[in-house]
Amino acid sequence: MSALPLTGKVALITGSSRSIGAAVAERLAADGANVVINYVNNASAAQEVADRINSKGAGQAKIIQADVSSVEAGKELVKNTLEAFQKIDILVPNAGVLENKTLEQITEEHFDTHFNVNVKGVLFLVQAAAPHMTAGGRVILFSTGVTSMSLVTPNYLVYAASKGAVEQMTRVLAKDLGQRQITVNTVSPGPTDTPLFRNGKTEDQIKFFANLSPQNRLGQCEDIASAVAFLSRADSQWVNGQNIRINGGMVV
């Protein structure tokens, strides 16, 4: 029997106690990686994800608490991951925040919250992890289809700006870490069926977004996890500095 494609690899996925992050952790573990389930407050949800993974006998999982909006907490998360698994091969800063406000509603706190989690925390987590990654390492960041949608609405202003910054970081980090044979890519999900997406929307609104796809459905967390799994593997080695939009053809 051949080894699973990520056997022997270690993956750190932030914000992985639920939704897309949990699906990514479960998929990478199913492909053989040992994974760190990072959470902020909900230890029981993180442990449930870890228990599902550990019951299947492929990659193993451990949970580690950290608020990755804090630079120091991000450094501690990397340290704890190394103590648990001795290395980091795959880094997936999935944790993010989205709270919609229009221009007149934006406050400094709102701005700082989004950029601390979505941009600063991501950048400094990569900085902390990169020295411990070797050739063949993978960094997979998260943006959003909002950055390229013509239908974007005014209340996505700060969120879209923060994710635009992530896309630019991807381009430059790919040149930097690529010199060490570490690839850096971004995935940009379209509307994905998560509790966060459904929050505050009517069924008609949800149907509207589903119908924007030629397949007439929302994305599923597993759709996003499949793309992350590909980017994590050895056969994605020539994909670097790219923004892969995962939206079923909603944005082309």
TrEMBL record:
InterPro entries: KR_dom, NAD(P)-bd_dom_sf, Sc_DH/Rdtase_CS, SDR_fam
Matches recorded under PROSITE patterns: ADH_SHORT
The entry's keywords: NADP, Oxidoreductase
SUPFAM superfamilies according to UniProt: NAD(P)-binding Rossmann-fold domains
Keyword Cytoplasm appears in the UniProt entry: no
Ranges of residues in domain Ketoreductase: 9-194
Listed CDD domains: THN_reductase-like_SDR_c
Pfam families per UniProt: adh_short_C2
Gene Ontology MF annotations: oxidoreductase activity, acting on CH-OH group of donors
The keyword Cell division is assigned to this record: no
Family (UniProt): Belongs to the short-chain dehydrogenases/reductases (SDR) family.
PANTHER family, alphabetized: NADPH-DEPENDENT ALDEHYDE REDUCTASE-LIKE PROTEIN, CHLOROPLASTIC-RELATED, RE15974P
Protein name per UniProt: Ketoreductase domain-containing protein
Species per Swiss-Prot/TrEMBL record: Mortierella isabellina
